[in-house]
Amino acid sequence: MKDIATPSRTREILKKYGFAFKKSLGQNFLVDPNVLNRITEAAGLTKETAAIEIGPGIGALTEHLARKAGKVVAFEIDKRLLPILKDTLSPYKNVEIIHQDVLKANVKEVIKEELSGYSDIMVVANLPYYVTTPIIMKLLEECLPIRGLVVMMQKEVADRLSAQPGTKEYGSLSIAVQYYTEAKTAFVVPKTVFIPQPNVDSAVIHLKRRTKPLVEVDNESFFFSLVKAAFAQRRKTLINNLTSQMPNGKEKKEQILNILAEAEIDPSRRGESLSIQEFARLSNLLYPLFS
Ligand code: SAM
To answer: Which residues form the Ribosomal RNA adenine methylase transferase N-terminal domain (predicted)?
Structure first.
């Protein structure tokens, strides 16, 4: 039988089930087997690998994962897709579909229960665009026992993941991703390989989990709240953002200024000019003032 990810088979499946796309769930299905081959290749899958997929849709990517990986666990939020997936993926016995919003799922527990025999686990997904950032943040922050992620997203979001200081793409997402992973763009995907076609091109990103974070911080959650504060209003200076965003920041202005001097960071710089190393240094010096 033809791959699910061909325009003719996808249309046939959609017609058979009278499936209507929900834009609100970011439903853009891939219809190009070559793109799928490149995604699974980038993920470095073998039968010793388990794959976690988010949003299998009608199973386009799931099918390729099932062929190459030992086992696939896929989270799908849309109940209407369950009977379709049961049908389209019936030739593959190594796939488990979980009907759940991945943002509410206990992924660690699912790994323990479903993938206990696997030491090599990859997240591989064509992510729903409306929740790309929260999904990536959740999977990174939960410190899952995974080798990494190979994920497709809007190119514009992809550019933010590996952005460098001083660029308009650089922000708290870039810092979080670089803290936990080494991010690389695997390839760019034109909008023509989806049904329905999105408005913008996509990119496949490879996020390789670091064995330890890029910088050492005394308190991770304080570090991330500092980063968030520094980017709260991008046009404001660092000192203005910190005093307006940090708890009792206004009263602590003098102390914050002293600590910035100690960290050798000019208070009139903008948050977007600070490197992750500077954020780490500042976080470790400021933490005692806010704990
Ligand atoms: N993997 C398929 C493909 O490549 O053709 C479909 C990808 S489509 C971009 C995104 C999929 O994610 C849809 O099937 C959608 O229903 C599902 N989805 C959206 N939000 C979700 C969530 N919070 N949790 C799990 N699945 C979600």
So the answer is: 35-211
